[in-house]
Structure formats: structure tokens, C-alpha cells
Amino acid sequence: MNQPIKTKIVRSDSFDPWHNLALEEYLFRQVEKDQIILYLWQNQNTVVVGRNQNAWKECRCSKLESDGGKLARRLSGGGAVFHDLGNLNFTFIMDRSLYDLKKQLHVILEGTQKLGIHAEFTGRNDLTVDGKKFSGNAFYFEGDKAYHHGTIMIDVDVRKVSAYLQVSREKMVSKGVDSVQSRVTNLRNYRPDLTIDEMKETLIQSFQELYGKSPEPVLIKEQEYHLKELYAKYSSWDWLYGKTPRFDVSWETRFPWGGIDLGLTLNKGIISESKIYSDAMNANLIEDIAAALIGRPLIAEDIREGLETIGGVEEDKAIIEDLKNWLGIKLTEL
């Protein structure tokens, strides 16, 4: 007999991205079996990069900081996004057995429908209206827990999106568009009177219709919960920027599932360090691929053997196959 789903709604009163990401991870660590949490939060003037992205390449960091903004890095994969107070973030945090992307997205799509806006899921992780993106989504899995989070652009200053984000030429060509501004939109363009509070209440209503009634939403204030260690992690230089070794070999390309920027450090022809920057959605897979190359000679057959040690679902195997073929070609050019 299936256990009833336990639901919880959490809101943060902080606009500090390091606090909000720390709280997100805290809730992730604490989520119970058969439980799903809807967490709603906002960041002020922030660029959030994906787990494996090179912050220097994705964000004009100096400009962001000089304007009083903050750089943040999340646990999940995917690409860089800009947040201000015209944006609402949501996170579904759950027992992994409850993970159902279609159902989770239905909460958002049903919410926009209630507001009289017809939206749809397109591409690998976007929600769009009239072909323009108003919500990007990313995912993280660890053990028996999972989360899915995303943005909802209600009244974001799109000029700042272009000012702070650096989108590679390869990515723009692959999407067939000329600028960031040309491919994003605010929901206020379709409902000029829409507010963040109305969006929150609509999402809460939609969430409870799909998952069942919840206790009253919990408002977590910035000083509540023991987040000191997690906050220190999310605000640290190592987490935000990490070390950038001097690589002996550096290759870059773009696949339909994401970009790859691979750096290898060699010691007598053996790979001693391997780093992959990527906006691929599966952050753990990218880290597993980088680790599988360490200790192997820079020879096509050895690289292929290393990649073949990585397991995974069919989608992961397709990514690994792409990399085997690409690296095989690059190694013949050395």
C-alpha cells in the first residue's frame, strides 16, 4: 500500500543567494521519505552558474561585483541565469521515488494557465510563452533524494541579463538567435498587473491541487536554522571560482546536450589532472567523466576504456559515446 505524500511549503525572507542556496541544500538533506517540499525564494542582482561551469566565461564577474551584485554557484548542472527581484525561484525537493518531472512542471504550467497565460515545455529545460523563455529548469540527484528547481521571470530587468551574462558564440549559433534579450520574456508582458505575491499564491494553489493539502507555508527568516557551514561553502572563493590549473591540453566543443570545455594536465604523457567545464544538465555525470580520465595515457584506446567504465542510463551512454567519438578525433590531431 502506497504511503500518502507528505507536503510542505517553505518561503525564504532573504534575498541573499548564498543564504538561499544554503537553505535549499539544508532542506534537501532533511527531506523525509514520501515527502515533497515546495521552496519559494528570490535573489537580488545575482548571477547563478551551474555546478560545472567556468564562472569567468559565463559571467562578467567584475562588472557584477562593482554593481553590488553577487555570483553564486548551485549544486545542479545547466547554464548561467540572472536573478533580480522581478524573478521568482521555485524548488521541488523530494524523496527520489516521488520525482516526476512532468508532474512538477505541471505545477508551473497550471499556475500560469490560472493567470490566463498559455505556456509550454520546450527544448531540454525551458518553459516558454510564444517561443520565448520565461523559466529555465535544472535538476540534482543524490542517493535517495532529488530536487528540481527553476526560475520564473515576471518583471526581470532584461538589460541586466545581457549586461552580466556572457553567452558563447557557439551556444548562440546552436539556438539560432542573436541575443539573450531576443529569446527571453517576462510574464508581465502577458499580464501587466501580475505581481510576485500573486505568482507565489498561484503556485501554492497549483502545488496543493496536485500533491494534496499542506500545512500553512513556513516563512524561514535569515537567522533561522543552522546554516553557518553551508553559507560558508556557498560564499567561498573555492566554491564560486575554484582553481584553474594551467592545462597542457585544452579542447572545446558543443553538443546538442551541452557545451564541453575540457582541460588536461599531463605528467610524462599520463593525465594527472582533468577538468571539464560544462552546462550539461547531469552535473554528476560530467564529474564522473573527468575523474575517469585521470591516470590514463593520452592515447585514444586508453581514453575510450576510461569512458567505458562509466555506467548510467541510456541518455548518459549517448553522451559518453559522443565524447568518445569527439576525443578520438581530437587525439588523432595531436
Explain how this protein is built.
It is a single chain. The protein has 334 residues and is of the alpha+beta class. It has two domains: 6-240, Bira Bifunctional Protein, Domain 2 (BirA Bifunctional Protein, domain 2), CATH 3.30.930; 249-332, CO dehydrogenase flavoprotein, C-terminal domain (Enolase-like, domain 1). The protein contains twelve helices and 14 strands. Helix 4 crosses helix 7 (196-211) and helix 11 (300-308) packs antiparallel against helix 12 (314-332). The radius of gyration is 20 Å and the shape is globular.
Task: Tag the structure with descriptive keywords.
334 residues; alpha+beta; BirA Bifunctional Protein, domain 2; 3-stranded mixed β-sheet
Number of helices: 12
Write the H/E string, N to C.
EHEEHHEEEHEEEEHHHEHHEEEHHH
Second CATH tier, the architecture of the largest domain: 2-Layer Sandwich
Mean pLDDT over all positions: 92
